[in-house]
Amino acid sequence: MSNSAARLTLLLAIPAVASALRAADNPAPKEADFVIHNFQFKDGETLPELRIHYATLGAPQRDASGRVTNAVLIQHGTTGSWRNFTSPSFSGVLFGPGQLLDASRYYIVMSDSIGHGGSSKPSDGLHAQFPHYDYDDMVSAQHQLVTEGLGVNHLRLVMGTSMGCMHSWVWGETYPDFMDALMPLACLPVQIAGRNRVWREAAMDSIRLDPAWKNGDYTEEPTLGLRSALYLLLIAGSAPLEWQKEYGTRDQADKFLQGYLEKRMPQYDANDVLYAIDSSRNYDPSPNLEKIKAYVMFVNSADDFINPPELGIADREIKRVPRGKFVLLPISPETRGHGTHTLAAVWKQYLQELLGESK
User: Fold this and answer.
1) Mean pLDDT of 95-100
2) How far apart are alpha carbons 317 and 304 in whole angstroms?
């Protein structure tokens, strides 16, 4: 067995997640850890063991040649995890009987990227000594999970939200013959610059400039820096129309913010957040868009603070993708800014179109 061979350890599904999925008439996912030995990062750093946590629904199907025909990889956003896809607005719309990604017909793989969820991350113990991973590292580890850990030699579909949207572009360029279709949701296929870069750098600076951070070797959470970073993440994902509707008075808005902080602060580690945001530093698929062979259905929403349509980037760059199509969802009572990416009812018709085109 090679150094990159994996150890798979089946875990019990988390009761709350399983319950949520059953409530949506979906089967419970199977969770597991895939361990890659002596994983080498792009910058030369290594980890003796890199753990990638994931969950699956359904089972792989193969054609006469042994090629897997029904595997779907779904990738989450910055600071998220595979559990982002267990909400009724996503799993309840896509994974149930007769739905577009019916788990009785598709083999659905949802992994926690490096630095996120149950996968290896700085807060496991290495803190600031954890390798400074980037998107290429994250996709490389996912590829090893899919191929070596799960024995999948082809993906019917790769889709992702926000950071996972950007990972979809990396997948399409790095492994152009590996998938039939790509569905990037809520991102742009260019280097992160302008306001998008500024708010990310501001969030990272908030953590790095907190004296309690101590160059990442803190023993107590640097709460001032972490709180400021979460403020910026909150605003970046905001939906003005919905927020005005839900928090239409000063007191309602203040109560919402206080509740958000009380819930989120205990869930996050400053180094984990810093590393997660920093992993986008060298993302730039724009030079190689012509190399993508898969059918692409690229979807953004017009009220997305992070990817504003007035930049014209999506319309320009999709013309370079041989089988690419871009859809801009108009602002409506159903959209939720950047978070529209997990409201499958809003864009499922385009997923249906993509699956039909890429047969």
Assistant:
1) 97
2) 18
Fold of 6-191+285-357: Rossmann fold (3.40.50)
In which residue ranges of the chain is CATH 3.40.50.1820 found? 6-191+285-357
The CATH 1.10.1740.110 domain(s) of the chain lie at 194-278
CA distance 13 to 26: 13
Average pLDDT along the chain: 93
Calpha distance 4→11 (Å, rounded): 21
Cα three-residue angle 145-85-352, rounded to 5 degrees: 95
Neighbours of 325 (CB within 10 A): 15
**Taking 70 as the threshold, does the pLDDT of residue 18 lie above it?**
no
Residues in the chain: 359
Q: b vs e for 86-123, b when ≥16 Cβ sit within 10 Å of the residue's Cβ?
A: bbebbbbbbbbeebbbbbeebbbbbbbbbbbbbbbbbb
The architecture CATH gives domain 194-278: Orthogonal Bundle (1.10)
Is pTM beyond 0.90 here? yes
Cα separation values, 85 from 136, 149, 342, Å: 23, 21, 7
Parallel/antiparallel/unpaired status of strands 324-329 and 295-301: parallel
Model confidence pLDDT, tens digit, residues 213-262? 999 999 999 999 999 999 999 999 999 999 999 999 999 999 999 999 99
129: CB partners within 8 A, 6+ apart:
none
